[in-house]
């Protein structure tokens, strides 16, 4: 036996957290079915609802990049978007200079003798290396400063000579941007005023120019207004515009700058954009001002994501909403949490009613699926189920529609046969973990705990993706492993939250099912190969309840080799002699560690000792009770065979609330057997030894109950009795370890 | 109860020369000249408003300490951030004489920095401080004096050596008076924390307590705590100026867990809360403030400074060995939301109380 327990022992097969203490937080616990990526082209990605500061960074693509579209129109649709995107952002300056005709855009420009465009692109690419502020310390880098000035002059000169209006605008923009990076506010202001301020028919380049102008300007209502328009019209500048936008400026002052309703709607959108609370007021205003605003549908999805978090995160993971994640949430806050959820459900209903009233969204995915989902979240599941059958979704939303339907169908009580009929939505390679988890939870809430366990077993099977989209959850009865108060593994969840009878049902399902269907095979794919673990779990549960016959029967079902395998840390944590202990040894090597047992052998031997002790004709009853008591002691937190009753060992016991905690931490059963051993002891020494060991158990109980709460600890009654009744032995029993060996040897 | 300092005092009283000196001093109470000052600590405010301008004039503020930027390590690179947007256009103010650029530097900038990096940092700060205080904030107005740079850094034992080297380099690079902020802890425990090598220090008489660890105390100004640090007879070897707080904040908690701070007391938010005492409030409805989603049941600790607290703090300072002769008294900070919480007479009395 080794000094094996340092702080926490983990099952090798469990999810390990190599970086030390980790507690799920923020988006790690957030529940969401409505993936915002499905609703836009990625241009709003930094502003998706998240517990983090920002969502994922904006990814420019051939499809969402407005500059690419501008060039596409310039080339009169003769060059594919992807080829243009590639040419302007990837193709080298050299290829343009050499007019490398393998690129379709260059080919088009050469063929149509658009040499001025090629010259422009070469010039633009030569400027890109100068797109950085001189230095944060604002010391002037003469070289870059001079180069930019030269290029500003060149660009403005070019813009005056050219006839092509788009090229003229592009050169003017480059000059303005160079002035920005030269920190030359005056020049920037002049260029903006001369060439951009009064332009009609604005394109994305105008909004780029407005962006630099606004960022350079004082942060006030005017610049806020400008940034709001940039945000609405220039996706690639959205992130920078949102950072520069000053939310301390009063909204009415910014609205006052607007001339059109669309401009006003864009301003309201900026204030709703990163609002972590309820934004319906601004959404209504945006709709009233600009019913077709592109920003509106994005903000509606964001609002749905918030409500999912506020209502469904607590429902499924039992963590608080991600924005308010707090590991110290406990029972005392449940009432408050429920009150908040109730108000959020009312909000979901209000939002659903408003979205449902918008004629422009009548046939839109948000107008039907969004509304149905919100109605369901609000608690009206039957209406949600009804609504979900009244429309057909476009191809890209069919899966989401079905997933939503399945979750609410389960909430209304459907079970196995329904799941089997919808199996294709689970049995996909990349099934949404949140969806599988929601299904598992709904089944669990319906009492279908066997099916629920099989769904939980589908989660977190890929360790590599655990940190990206893993699922963590808590249990309703606050039982935790000794490692944490949350779960990421079906097995440990069953350990804490499934009764022995429920475990048996899962075992029966995966071992006795005849005519397995494809769906069954999928359901059981992770549990069936691990059925031995379930027998082990069952045996362990029976050990906790001291039902030795049942424990032995369960352990007999465990395949040979499990306890020796790498997936079970038995060899590290259960390789000591469970029938030996002394006055002080807990997890250190003892003279008794000359033999080891399997879990089955321990249970069988324990049963044998008890039987022999209780057999009327047994002469040395005290010895057998003493051996049983040693074993019961060693199966507690303080002994060398704790793994008979637990899968984790921790110096802290705050998370465990299992049914035998009284025995596990307080050694009640061991004390009972030491006292029985005393009743049948043949000598005074043996009696004293038994009482001394009972006193040891009592001491753990006193420490457990009194040491943390600062009360005065009562006296150890067993030790008092030892002192009173065995005066001669008391000193050596308490003070000398060697007396244990001396008296224990008399038993043999 | 006598302290060891009182023992020393009694011993020295037996010295005839000391007794004579004591009597002479006792006959004519020393008059301390007070120079009135304010701090301005906002980054993104471009112009001071009418209330702030009027406060400067009415209180006859001579010096304005302006935070011009902060310095942090970002991805390992020492970088200036939170640069001031202020433009100080005060054509009618004839009293304000001097602008002092203040630079807040995070302590970890000095940990693991080489001497060369510190030298470069001092060059950069001297350049940027001048640029901001003269060209940007002072708008090139030569009527404002620019004589001093103030460095604000809560140095530790591990950063002390490099921080002190930096202060010396700042003097060389800027050719200005260098002052630095001094909290009460390094004031009292100067033997451990060292004496910063600069021309003068600004003793920050606030923020002595960790706001998150003292549930039932006002962490901005707790005079009982303050008295523990001033209860010393040390003769600090550098001239000391005084900074006092007139700011407030709301510390937001969800389920006893700190979530964020709202600077100033938001009266609208206050109207959404119920209170059992002056410090602690409970949210009665959901709302968003400064980007924080406050939900019903959340708790908020509201900390503000009263006239009584300020008077007590002044008494403690006067009863200590801090004040010497000509002293700058600066209030933190110039923002209408904060100064409007006080009557003009109250603010004026803070300065005049030191001259009495």
Tell me what you see in this structure.
The complex is a heterodimer of chains A (748) and B (356). By secondary structure, chain A is mainly α. Chain A has two domains: 36-314 and 328-365, no CATH class; 477-486 and 518-747, no CATH class. Chain A is 56% helix and 1% strand. By secondary structure, chain B is α/β, with parallel strands linked by helices. Chain B folds into two domains: 30-247 and 305-355, TIM Barrel (Alpha-Beta Barrel), CATH 3.20.20.80; 254-294, no CATH class. Chain B is built from twelve helices and 16 strands. The radius of gyration of chain B is 22 Å and the shape is globular. The interface between A and B is medium-sized, with 25 and 23 residues.
Brief description of this entry?
Chain A is mainly α. Chain A contains 37 helices and two strands.
Mean pLDDT reading of chain A: 89
The DSSP helix count of chain B reads 12
Helix content of chain A: 55-70%
- The general outline of chain A is elongated
**Strand neighbour order, sheet with most strands of chain B:** 1-2-4-5-6-7-8-16
Counting structural domains of chain A, the number is: 2
Unreliable runs of chain B, pLDDT <50, ≥5 residues?
A: 1-28
* Greatest interface by residues involved: A-B, 25 and 23 residues
The H-and-E topology of chain B, N to C, reads as HHEHEEEHEHEHHEHEEEHEEEEEHEHH
Hey, roughly how much beta strand do the residues of chain A contain?
under 5%
Characterize the main sheet of chain B. Answer: 8 strands, parallel, barrel
Give the DSSP E fraction of chain B (strand runs of 2 or more residues): 25-35%
Strand segment tally of chain A: 2
CATH-level-2 architecture of the largest domain in chain B: Alpha-Beta Barrel
Q: Specify the number of helices of chain A.
A: 37
- C-alpha Rg of chain B, in Å? 22 Å
Distance between the termini of chain A: 24 Å
What composes the largest sheet of chain A? Answer: 2 strands, antiparallel
